[in-house]
Amino acid sequence: MTDPLFVVGSPRSGTTLLRVMLAGHPGLFAPPEMLLAPFATMAERAARLEERFWEKGGLRRTIMELLQVDVDEAKRVEASLADRGTREVYAWVQERIAPRILVDKCPHLAVDPSALGRLVEWFPLARWLWIVRHPGSVTRSIENMPMAEVMLSGYAAETGDLWYSTNRALRDFLATIPAERQALVRYEDLVTDPRDALGKVCQRLAIPFHEALLTPYEGERMREGPSGARAVGDPNMAGRGRIQPELATSWLESFDPARVTPATHGLARELGYDLGALAPPPIAAVTAALDGLWETARKLEQRMRMPADLDDVEGRRFLLRMVSASVDLFVEQGDIDRPRFHHAEGPSRKMFADNPDADYWRAPVRLSGGRRYRISGRVPPGSAYVGLLLYRKGGAVGAHRHDSRFVGPDGRFSLTLAAAPDADLVGSGDEIAVMVRQYYRDRSREAPLELAIELIGGPPPRPLDAAALAASVGRARRNLEAVVARTAGTWEQTARAVPNVFAVMDGSLLFPTPDNVYLGCRYRFGDDQMMLVRGRLPRGRWWGICLYNAWLESLDYGSHRICLNDRTLAVAADGSYEICLAHHDPGHPNWLDTAGHRAGYALVRCLLPEEPVVPPTTQVLYQREWRG
After folding, report:
1. Lowest mean pLDDT among 4-13, 236-245, 539-548, 564-573
2. Closest CA to 92 of 62, 72, 71, 69
3. Which residue(s) pair with 437 in the sheet?
4. Which of 190, 192, 231 is nearest to 213 (CA)?
């Protein structure tokens, strides 16, 4: 009997296609994977197949073909071989196919040097056909293979290492086999020019060429079998119906050569693949964008320097919060075609002097190109204030309205946003977001508004795109850098201001609502001191005061009393008030807790004032000097 022809290669390299092509040759018998080669005895094989049941079909399908029997009879015959050595089973098959040559396809051999050595002893004149495929195609095919981690167990610890480890082992083994008894075929050549590729293989292995090699989907070639006798191999093979040249490169579009080892690059070049010639896949742009985001966060953290330890540690928390906020803003909530309102700030996301007595609802928009949005909702009775504001590029304030100008008697509203004169809220075309603010006096009693937004006549939804995701991450990185730098810069600028003095401030630093007048103060006093703030409430829609840390975050209002408004403030009959900022409760009815901060910001908001707003006065004194 002629020794077999063994087909070897890494998983997903095209061994199944090559096997089916060879199965058409009248001088060859090429069954599915019989899984004999890795074992010395059938008992060893049976033990392995108890764990890998999906690999049982190959030998059974071979028996059905050889004896022309059904599945049940094939199972009985297979059971009768259970006490034999696998060399005997090879002989049993070879006797029944003679004078044809047995073709045994077994990718498992790539990780089993002992089995390779045993086969050389059993079949010293065996021929070897090694199929190689681009490492990118193999890697991406494996990564998209259902249950790959189970089915390819034992090949390599990591998917990215499988191509290198298996092909290196086969290269080293075949270096011990005489050149006239081995051939190498590239998968890419096999699918793009099968006649030339197999012609060279036949010539090298002294096998006459036959036209049937080129038509793997014609005739019965054990591509699949009756129920219970499923052939082993690529499950996609049977459903293709033709050789597909496009498979030579289709997987490479998503392969990143930068993610494989230098050793893989070297072996690939040895086998004719220049990984460096590949363009980075779209996903590489996402990786680069993420690297940029992490690097920016790292640099920002390294540059953080605050005199007080508490401000320093809060800066690191602020950085984490802004990473989260930036990603949320541009990756999760950045779809201008399907916008939705989300809370831009809250107890664990604070920036630019947030107001604990307000909800900030933000949605992304783009008014250029004739795009038009509709905002609708309902303002509950008793709401303190609701305002709409368009933000332009760079955070510049755009068109805005407050509730008395757009809410109907029943509290409902519907407005259009567009860069067109017929819109309810007319933009200039460079808007990036719309913000809706709702102010409260008592959250426990006042309901939140109902709110919705839609792009009128928007395009149909699209799957996530790598380029778009990379761009979103890039915007998140730039936002992170700008917010942290701008916030830290504000603290440095105000260091030159006179402390403990309120003054009307430029609200543009705070991404403001134009309906507010802002009075700011940078306070600083010692552990045993306090600061009294005195003034008179102006007539208007709403008034409030709040304390902030160096990062323009409201202090932790979940644990400390750090803000008051015109309902919670104790006011004299003439409208005058006195507020006490102190590190410890002195018993003052309007005490605001500095929560461990010897320095920070105090900010007063006067919403839609009906009279000139006069800044309050301040007095710093020792607590022992104060008499309540």
Report:
1. 236-245
2. 62
3. 360, 387
4. 190
Structure-token pair, residue 130: 């090694």
> Would you state the pLDDT for residue 508?
75
- Name, in order, each residue with C-beta under 8 angstroms of 565's C-beta and a sequence gap of 6 or more: 357, 441, 542, 543, 544, 545
- What three-state secondary structure class fits 281? coil
Spatial contact of 224 and 57, defined as CB atoms under 8 Å apart: no
| DSSP for 394-439, written as a single string | GG-EEEEEEGGGT--TTSEEEEEEESSTTSSEE--S-EEEEEEEEE
Which residues are CB-contacts of 275 (< 8 A; sequence separation ≥ 6)?
Answer: 135, 136, 257, 260, 264, 265, 268, 269
CB-based burial, 231-255: b 16+ in 10 Å, e otherwise? bbbbeebbeeeebeeebbeebbebb
Query: Which tokens in the block code for residue 583?
Result: 């590190």
From residue 113, alpha-carbon distances to 108, 168, 273, 352 in Å are 10, 12, 25, 65
327 sits in the region (left: phi over 0; alpha: psi -120 to 50; else beta) called alpha
Name beta bridge partners: 416: 374
Q: Which of 284, 508, 262 lies closest to 396 in space, CA to CA?
A: 508
Distance (Å, whole) CA 319 – CA 350: 11
Give the Cα separation of 211 and 25 in Å (integer): 8
In 354-409 the beta strands, taken as DSSP E runs, fall at: 358-364, 372-378, 385-392, 397-402
Averaged pLDDT of the chain = 92
Q: What is the dihedral of CA 475, 480, 485, 486, to 10 degrees?
A: 80
CA separation, residue 72 to residues 90, 115, 226, 277 (Å): 21, 30, 11, 53
Beta-carbon contacts of 460 under 8 Å, excluding residues fewer than 6 positions away, are: none
Return phi, psi of residue 246, to 5°: -65, -20
- For 58-105, what is each residue's pLDDT tens digit? 999 999 999 999 999 999 999 999 999 999 999 999 999 999 999 999
Number of neighbours of residue 149 by Cβ within 10 angstroms? 9
Q: What are phi and psi of 349, to 5 degrees?
A: -145, 100
In the numeric block, the tokens 């199929």 are attached to 131
Tokens 């099968």: give the residue.
194
pTM of the model as a whole: 0.76
Phi, psi of 603 (to 5 degrees): -130, 130
At 247, phi and psi to the nearest 5? -70, -10
Grouping H, G, I as helix, E, B as strand and the rest as coil, residue 592 is: strand
- As given in the structure block, the two tokens for residue 598 are 């010897």
What are φ and ψ of residue 263, in 5° steps? -65, -40
